[in-house]
Design goal:
The chain is about 30% helix and about 25% strand. α5 packs across α7. β7, α8 and β8 form a beta-alpha-beta unit. The longest helix is centred in the middle third of the chain and has 18 residues.
């Protein structure tokens, strides 16, 4: 199989926060890659570490109280954790764009929309004011904002929720970055506007060849948008694979629980959805075994005592679950294994 070119690689990233209550181990040994021109989904329930992981990529988590305990984050081969402030500013402004979770609160209410988009160019001497405005209006048109001259002069409170989100995407795109990170960009929008924003992201990937990381808890968004998926739980990655692998060859009990907790087209009227019983692990003192063991219907003694190894089911599909071990009982989640992570690489 031809080697796909990676634009971003996270290798064994460990990130924690110092708090009055102790150390919160938010991201625990996370590794994944993003390829050129692909859309990678990161999915999981609130508190699983997906947003903190996304913000680690651009060093947006405050340090302190946050701190890296280990790992590498390679963007185009350069380690983000070794960058100085000047290099970080350049990367954030030009190379990676970030679309934040809530457009209602992410935009500055005291600044006109055009000025907020143009902030990306502050400090750049290689571009005139006229060119800055031209680029701003061009990117506003690209993200589907109508009557751009009028919108350019308006304040955020004069825009609808969907239009605000388009402005956020314009801010992320204005310098034509090679990677955009979207942190639940459709959470506060109704389904019609959500569909428009997702279509817009697909169109931008097509036109600009931009790689996208989509952070979400919504499996519908994952199914519609993504090429590959990373499933996180308790600060760790529990399963990863193509969209087809995750939806049709599910190999982890947590992923199965996510699938069963959403309504499907064939869900009968009055039929109750099946929630995942229990609560997420305490990241002040994470469990020594599998983070999902306490809530897992398949849990064995080994799950509570030892962290599971990562089993390679195909070249793209991995599951960190003891159910994939050769001595584990047969279940509907057990798949043929081609090896363990590290042995196959």
């Amino acid at each position: 199989m031809a080697e796909k070119e990676n634009i971003l690689e996270l290798k064994n990233v460990v990130f924690s926060f110092h708090t009055y209550g102790g150390e919160v181990q938010a991201v625990r040994d996370v590794s994944f890659e993003v390829r050129k021109g692909e859309i990678l989904g990161i999915v999981g329930e609130s508190g699983c570490g997906k947003s903190v992981t996304a913000q680690c990529i651009m060093r947006l988590n405050p340090e302190p109280p946050g701190f890296f305990k280990g790992g590498e984050i390679l963007f185009n081969g350069q380690d983000v954790l070794k960058m100085n402030q000047k290099e970080l500013r350049k990367m954030r402004g030009q190379d990676i764009g970030f679309v934040f979770q809530d457009p209602m609160t992410s935009l500055n209410p005291t600044m006109r929309v055009g000025a907020q988009i143009e902030e990306v160019f502050v400090g750049r001497k290689d571009i005139s004011k006229k060119e800055v405005k031209e680029k701003t209006l061009e990117i506003m048109k690209l993200v589907g904002i109508s009557d751009v001259e009028k919108r350019y002069r308006q304040y955020p409170h004069e825009l609808s929720g969907g239009m605000k989100q388009r402005v956020m995407i314009a801010i992320a795109l204005v310098s034509r970055p090679s990677l955009i990170i979207c942190d639940e960009p459709t959470t506060s929008l109704d389904v019609t506007i959500e569909a428009q924003i997702l279509d817009l992201l697909l169109e931008l990937r097509e036109k600009l060849g931009t790689s996208i990381i989509m952070i979400t808890h919504d499996l519908g968004v994952i199914a519609r948008l993504c090429d590959r998926v990373v499933v996180m739980y308790g600060g760790k990655i529990v399963e990863r694979g193509t969209v087809q692998d995750i939806f049709y060859k599910t190999a982890h009990p947590y992923t199965k629980g996510l699938m069963e907790s959403i309504a499907k087209l064939d869900t009968a009227k009055g039929e109750k959805l099946k929630p995942i019983e229990g609560t997420p692990p305490d990241l002040f003192s994470p469990p020594k075994g599998c983070p999902f063991a306490a809530r897992c219907e398949y849990a064995m003694d080994v799950c509570h005592e030892y962290p599971p190894e990562e089993y390679m089911l195909t070249e793209e599909h991995e599951s960190a679950c003891w159910l994939q071990h050769e001595y584990a009982p047969e279940t509907e989640l057990k798949r043929p294994v081609i090896g363990k992570k590290g042995e196959v690489d």
